[in-house]
Specification:
binds 1,3-dihydroxyacetonephosphate; globular; TIM Barrel; disordered N terminus; eight-stranded parallel beta barrel; 8 strands; alpha/beta
Length: 272
């Protein structure tokens, strides 16, 4: 299968979730990835998504490296009495990226499709690139309802999206049963679901705007399986959790993606 969708560069994003516990560990992790990311920068986009308190420190380390920085969530109001929240506006000075609709936000913190939609619109409105996550539960997968569930989440999230904003949108397909379980989805299943995602994008935004939206896979992705996803014609990269917390492993993933896309990699990339 042809790896390259016209005009789309692959993206590898590391979602650190609520890790690591200390600022010094966050700095070490970021430093450990920069070499590989720079070596592959002609071919692969790389973004790191640390917890809020580590954003500024990691921003300094990433300055002028070409590695993107992102947050894991945002709130749609710009400022005000919203205890504990961080607005998209506040992030826009530091970050290029933000996640919306991650399944942990939906499942643990009860985020609705409507909230995901408002967050996505607000983030794009202030110039952030959004990685919008969709994915089905184990029982929905078993019942063969993946396409229906994922399409519904996506349609709801795209409600306020204008086709002109599509270049700042990335969709991450993350089956919930594959997240943190070591049971990565069969690439065939991922491919079929990405076809359903592409259909919704085409219908909602039109073919041209849809073609600017990248689609990622997420869920127990690692250096051993990332190649099987980025080889899929509809897959433009991966959103990585656990494996992004090990600098060498994430660096190796960057190299594999660059290799699949035929770009340069260097020996020192995994060891810097
Ligand atoms: P894991 O790679 O640890 O399964 O996590 C995936 C994820 O949720 C990324 O957002």
């Amino acid at each position: 299968m042809n790896a390259q969708r016209s005009g789309s560069r692959p993206l590898l994003a590391g979602n650190w979730k609520m890790n690591p516990a200390r600022a010094s560990e966050a700095a070490e992790l970021a430093r450990g990835v920069i070499g590989a990311a720079r070596a592959a920068s002609a071919t692969v986009d790389v973004a790191l998504l640390p917890p809020f308190p580590w954003l500024l420190g990691v921003a300094e380390l990433l300055h002028e490296t070409g590695v993107g920085l992102g947050a894991q969530d945002c709130f749609w109001e710009p400022a005000g009495a919203y205890t504990g929240e961080v607005s998209a506006v506040m992030l826009s000075g530091w970050c290029q990226w933000v996640l919306t609709g991650h399944s942990e936000r939906r499942q643990i913190f009860g985020e609705s499709d409507e909230w995901v939609s408002k967050k996505t619109k607000a983030a794009i409105g202030v110039g952030l690139n959004v990685i919008l996550c969709v994915g089905e539960l184990d029982d929905q997968f078993e019942a063969g309802r993946t396409d229906e569930v994922v399409s519904g989440q996506l349609q709801a999230a795209l409600e306020y999206m204008s086709p002109g904003d599509s270049g700042r949108l990335v969709i991450a397909y993350e089956p919930i049963w594959a997240i943190g379980t070591g049971k990565n989805a069969d690439p065939e299943h991922a491919y079929k679901t990405m076809r359903a995602i592409r259909r919704v994008l085409d219908e909602s935004l039109g073919d041209e705007a849809s073609s600017r939206v990248r689609i990622l896979y997420g869920g127990s992705a690692n250096s051993g399986n990332v190649g099987s996803y980025v080889e899929l014609p509809l897959c433009d990269g991966c959103l990585v959790g656990g494996a992004s917390l090990k600098a060498h492993e994430f660096a190796r993933m960057i190299e594999v993606v660059a290799e699949v896309y035929g770009g340069p990699t260097t020996e020192e990339a995994t060891t810097s």
